[in-house]
Specification:
The protein has about 270 residues and is α/β, with parallel strands linked by helices. It is about 20% helix and about 25% strand. It has six helices and 15 strands. Helix 1 packs parallel to helix 2. The longest helix has 13 residues. The protein is globular, with a radius of gyration of 18 Å.
């Protein structure tokens, strides 16, 4: 099984740039083309939040237009820039999002089970897994303790070394950690929000974040450093399941020189 993750697409109304600088729609169009060109083809695509920039219906309509070009099933979850009602309305035809409340759901149709968690706190940049949301997660995990399971969420539970994010850590992460430790079938945690490629070991489980499809947060590990962004290359994350283990690849989106051979006539080129 092969899962593609993209995140933090931040689609704006037509003609608007994010932060007066970034044409996020052109970047998403490029990402969609890159995903469709993958060989072997992925089984599905997940988009881990901050789908649009201001939670407006017109932004979700534009987002839909891009994601509809993907030739694979697509599943989305909200981030702090999203608005639950407008998001649920825009993706109602997919019939996987709840009609009300937190937008949690389970993806059951592939060898790996995927549980999607809504960490949104309306009006706040930080996220939360409250008692009700953690209870939902524990109940779903208890349903099937044998299948390898991936959790996907917008806000990462792990520290980053970046002051801005670490000052706004996920609320409820202690309870989340207890659940992850209780259910060993959890094999990976996919997150967004950081606009950077990151990996962590979260209480014995691999956890990762992938770069935005557009702009990236500047790597600045100085205490108290402000949050800024750069135009480093966008990326997608490929999470595979094979031979009873997970593996992950960060795949940059763009045109790069190559591929070039290492060998010629059976010998290493010198």
């Amino acid at each position: 099984m092969l899962i593609v993750q993209i995140t933090d697409t931040h689609i704006k109304p037509h003609g608007r740039l994010a932060y007066r600088k970034v044409g996020t729609d052109a970047f998403l169009e490029r990402a969609v083309a890159a995903i469709n060109a993958l060989d072997p083809a992925p089984d599905l695509v997940v988009v881990t939040g901050d789908l649009v920039d201001a939670g407006m219906p017109e932004e979700y309509e534009r987002l839909h237009g891009f994601l509809d070009r993907l030739v694979f099933p697509v599943f989305v979850i909200p981030g702090n820039h999203d608005e639950r009602g407008a998001l649920a309305d825009a993706f109602a035809a997919g019939r996987y999002l709840p009609a009300a409340g937190p937008l949690h759901y389970a993806i059951e149709d592939w060898p790996v089970r995927i549980l999607a968690l809504d960490t949104l706190i309306p009006g706040k940049a930080s996220g939360a897994l409250c008692a009700d949301r953690l209870a939902w997660l524990a109940d779903r995990l208890a349903e099937d303790r044998r299948r390898p399971t991936v959790l996907m969420m917008h806000h990462p539970p792990f520290g980053t070394g970046m002051s801005y994010h670490d000052d706004r850590r996920l609320e409820g992460r202690e309870g989340f950690a207890a659940i992850v430790q209780e259910f060993p079938q959890v094999g990976w945690i996919l997150t967004g929000h950081l606009h950077r490629n990151m990996t962590a070991n979260w209480h014995g489980v691999p956890a990762s974040c992938v770069s935005s499809t557009a702009h990236q947060a500047t790597l600045d590990l100085r205490p108290g450093a402000p949050l800024t962004f750069t135009m480093e290359p966008p990326a997608m994350f490929l999470l595979g399941w094979s031979d009873e283990h997970f593996y992950g690849h960060t795949h940059l989106i763009g045109a790069f020189d190559g591929p070039h051979p290492f060998f010629s006539g059976g010998k290493l080129i010198d």
